Amino acid sequence: MARKYDKAAAIAEISDKLKSSNAAVLTEYRGLSVKQITELRGSLRGNATYAVVKNTLTELAAKDAGVTAFDGQLVGPTAIAFVEGDPVEAAKTLRDFAKANPLLVIKGGVLDGKALTAAEITKLADLESREVLLAKLAGAMNASLSKAVYLFAAPLSKAARTIDALKATKTDDVATGGDE
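Given the sequence above, the corresponding structure tokens read:
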């Protein structure tokens, strides 16, 4: 009876993590040492937690959480990175670790309820960080505002130059004695 309770608690815990996470990345860790997995957990710290899970319990938890992204992928030794922080940073960390340790295989994932393939996770990892993207956006907006100010000021300065030219011609006309 205690064993059945443990399974129910594990399913509830995985389901809760899937519901509360920004994203989750499904991996296969076959052949990685405990030291390597500990190193991966340490590098993910702050953005994600990395947990080794049982496939059958994860399948039940995913159904409970309404996640269909893992259907058919829960085969072999499986671990999930539950992303609480920046999904781009977590994806970069997993990608870089997988490059250094080819035994880590990224199978797929879910981001804001949308299923992601391994290729899409790699594309996500190729994005610049949130801070860099926000800085670029701010720069682009600032440049657009500067252009808008110039465009709004241009007709006024053109009008001022035209008025000055008219005054100058009027002054010339008065100085030369009128219409000739």
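The mean pLDDT is 83. Try to locate this feature in the token string yourself.
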